[in-house]
Amino acid sequence: MAVLSIRPKAPRSPAPSRNKPVRGRRKAVGALFAVPALALFLVFAIYPMLRVFYLSLFDYSLTSPPEFVGFENFTYLATDPQFGAALWQTVVYAAGTYVPALALALVLAHALNTRTRGSGLLRLLYFLPVAISWVAVSVIWRVVLNPDGLLNQALGLHLNWLTSSGSAMWGLVVMGVWKETGFFLILFLAGLQSIPDELHEAARLDGAGAFARFRYVTWPMLLPVTAVCSVMAVIRGFQAFSPQLVLTNGGFGTQVVNLFVYKTAFENARMGRASAVAVLMFLLLFGLTLLQLKVFARRDR
Amino acid sequence: MAEHGIRSLRHIRTAGAAILAALLAAATLSACGGDESGGAVTLKFWTHTHPPMIKLNQTLIAEYERQHPNVRIEYQQVPNDEFDTKMLTSMSNGTGPDVLNLDDTTLRGEYLPKRLLAPIDYGALGTGSADELKARYLPRTLDGASADNELYGLPSEFNATAFAVNTQHFADAGLDPDAPPKTWQDVAADARKLSGAGHTQAFSFLYLHSGWYTQQLQTLLNETGGTITDPGHQKATVTSPQAQAALKIWTDLATGAGRAADPNRTSREATSPFSDLATGRQSMAIVYPWAMEQIRESNPDTFAKLKLVPLPQVNPAKPVNRWYGYYWGVSRASEHQQQAWQFIAYLASQSQRWLSDVKFIQPVKGWDTSAAGKQVPGLDVWSAAYRQGKFDEVAPHFAEIKDAVMAMVNDTVFDHVAIPEASRKAAETIDRSLGS
């Protein structure tokens, strides 16, 4: 075994008194290499986050000095029907888009897991929408969703998808599922391909059918990937912005939280209030992520 | 080795001295650049995008720079839908322009209350006083850029509102273009006949963004006597009978008994707002002088069929029009305010060229009797409209109020919410905005 090992043989350990300063120096050099990345992270990630926390305690219109108001922005939001509606619309969009997208991705990943003729092309086709920007996709889907558009023609309907509170959100959801399924498909496919064939073989020899193999072999082995997909789905769902801006500008019950933040900050010049929303969303997403990780960790056990 | 080190040290010293000299020279030059007593001055000038306007601005800038070799104008055009955001953020971080061009609602709603603009420098403009300046313009037309009896801008374009009808469509429907609709009920009646003749998009309001929604509702509010808020901007008044009457006119024409077009099929392209009228899809539209010029340039065949008529009224015996204007102003943060006003004085002195080249009417007295004014199509209609106008009201946090107005119209037109319910919901949003 030692001969087959690819790990280089560790040198005989030198005297502890000589080794300590060398290891310390190595650590210092290593830390020095991390400094530029750390500095960038502090400047472009940590500082803006802290700044947003700070600004959320002020009334600030961009053009006049900030005025300290304590938690007033948060108490305002607690009773603001527009913020409540935006939060609800975000939940509807996130759930409506990502639950079907994840389910569809899992099914398609299974179908495409075995290499057959054309499976490579199909993988590419499913992934293609992921590579297109949200703005471009939105412009394309405007043609699909307009009253004379392809969707109505295909379904034999005459819905005004983007100009009615009853349908605008569902138009965006349909588009979102189309755009996002490919992303999760690739992740699930990678997860499926990492499952050793031996496990399926053993289960088959034990007489397990296709469903049993999925239930007792594939699904448990896919849990880590599913956890990642689930966390990412929630984050991506709550990050929704571009299609709502391009297609409806937040009208007809499609004003998601990020669009609400953008409008509050840059159109209505209420930076403090917008920052308070950002803080709340950060806390909410942080909590949801922890919760999901905990749930998946328990299942993994 | 030692010699090499010394040589390197010398090189470093020489290079250091050169850098220091360059920095000192740059600092001196930069100090000269900011000197207002004859040194070079760079003025940043921002406008929105409108090709004919940009072309004339570029010509005037070149002329001005030739006449004033010490002044350089950095001209930047900002896309219309990004204009407010970019302007506000740039003003907040000190990278904004010296000379800016803004519409009157933005000026009165955001910039003047926040003291972002410098008052007019009458000396730089070559006038002695506000009264002397006002005497050059039609009455009340400078009010769009005034606050607390102080003036902050000169009009680059000034728009009254009129109505355009497609004479070909009217002929198809057996209507007489010389007897155009005088009231909104007439518009609905004519629309029925136009629809019968195959012109199904007879008349539609434009559903572009909250600014467009608000200005069109304001046009109707001026006629019904309604308002969006009370005079002190303490509370919303969109639930008043007059305001609801204005919304009813809109809703009736969009989806009600007087339905004049399908609002879902109205063009929503904000960069070309009048494309339905210009391409001959729509038979009648509310228009402004610049819109007619845009159609003349882009669709001359349709333009030849359009007839300009007075805006339909609730009470034709007492016509009321809607005004709005764009004004040149100077940032309070500008270090070259005097030069900026001198540049504006030059731009404003070319009102005949603005009229002939861009069809921007600047409301100077006698514009309609000038050589260029006499060439304006529909002169009699515009001339009357420029005497019957009213600026939009603006209130604090006007952007939020415009959003509430848009939601109210969308509720009634697209979601078929009853007018009292939609206006009550809008009033709650507006009240909340005014009170916070």
From TrEMBL, chain A:
A biological process term (GO) from this entry: transmembrane transport
SUPFAM superfamilies: MetI-like
Nucleotide-binding keyword on record: no
Protein family: Belongs to the binding-protein-dependent transport system permease family.
Record protein name field: ABC-type sugar transport system permease subunit
Keywords: Cell membrane, Membrane, Sugar transport, Transmembrane, Transmembrane helix, Transport
Cited PROSITE patterns: ABC_TM1 (PS50928)
Bilayer topology annotation: Multi-pass membrane protein
Annotated ABC transmembrane type-1 domain residues: 87-292
Location in or out of the cell: Cell membrane
Any one cellular-component term (Gene Ontology): plasma membrane
Transmembrane stretches, start-end: 28-50, 91-112, 124-144, 168-195, 216-235, 241-262, 274-293
Keyword Transmembrane among UniProt keywords: yes
UniProt xrefs under InterPro entries: ABC_transporter_permease, MetI-like, MetI-like_sf
From TrEMBL, chain B:
Keywords noted in UniProt: Signal
Top-level taxon of origin: Bacteria
Signal peptide, first to last residue: 1-33
Transmembrane segments: none
Keyword Signal among UniProt keywords: yes
InterPro entries, per the entry: Bact_solute-bd_prot1, SBP
Protein name according to UniProt: ABC-type glycerol-3-phosphate transport system substrate-binding protein
